[in-house]
Amino acid sequence: MTRSENSIDLAHRLAPGADNAPAIAAPDRTALSHVGLRRLIGETVSRLNALGIGRGDRVAIVLPNGPEMATAFITVAAAASTAPLNPAYRADELDFYLSDIGVKAILVGKDERGPSVEVAERLGIPVLRLVVPVGAPAGVFIIEGDPVGPPVESALAEDSDTALLLHTSGTTSRPKLVPLSHANLAASAAHIGATLSLTPADRCLN
Fold first, then answer.
1. What angle do CA 150, 120, 126 make, to 5 degrees?
2. What is the pLDDT, as a whole number, of residue 21?
3. Average pLDDT along the chain, 206 residues, taken 10 residues at a time
């Protein structure tokens, strides 16, 4: 399989629905279609590549729950490895997780000024800002920030690449970092869909 074929497969795996079918919805906002989500994947990957972030790099995402958190995870994971972190973490917790993960950048909301930004700046981690254009469909965003390195070759992630980095609970010992590949997540999603007998007409509330 060529890289371009893999890229097409990944984008359609992440947003497999019909072009006009809704992919992400939120109250009082226009729904983002599957073709819109596929477009957002391509735009986000291109933007991150231009900022110097690509396959193998790690990006922490510290955002509140909502449509942009969902699409940020999907789209950033298509370019790099994501590490979603709880916005409610204290400074000492963020210090541990950001240091342990070894992130190349952190993605926060446009107006975020809390501990996540303070800790990232103290650790010398570049801060990128997620900005939602006025009137944009649910989940649509752009990334603002300075380059974190020279541009990298434009490419989407492959099945064996790490998509998600999670920590164990650490209830009995120091939390351990657990990497999950795109293949892992695809298999998990397929199992969940089969277990719940989901169809394109169904809606899932998060």
1. 15
2. 93
3. 50 83 95 95 96 96 96 96 95 95 96 95 97 96 97 90 88 82 91 93 89
| Residue 52 · residue 152 · CB < 8 Å | yes
All structural domains of the chain: 3-145 (3.40.50.980)
Look at residue 170 in the predicted model and tell me its pLDDT.
66
Torsion from C-alpha of 186, 188, 194, 199, nearest 10 degrees: -50
Matching residue, tokens 């099945």: 159
Q: Whole-angstrom Cα distance, residue 66 to residue 109?
A: 12
Tell which residue, 60, 39, 57, has the closest CA to residue 139. 39
* 83 within 8 A of 101, measured Cβ to Cβ: yes
Q: In whole angstroms, what is the distance from residue 94 CA to residue 115 CA?
A: 8
Cα dihedral 193/195/201/206 (nearest 10)? -70
Q: Is the dihedral of CA 168, 54, 114, 66 positive or negative?
A: negative
Which helix or strand (DSSP H or E) is residue 108 part of?
strand 105-109
Residue 36, SS3 per DSSP: helix
- CB neighbours of residue 145 within 10 Å: 17
Task: Extract the tokens encoding 60.
Answer: 């922490």
Predicted local confidence at residue 4, as pLDDT = 42
Backbone angles phi, psi at 114, to 5 degrees: -85, -160
Q: What is the DSSP letter of 111?
A: T
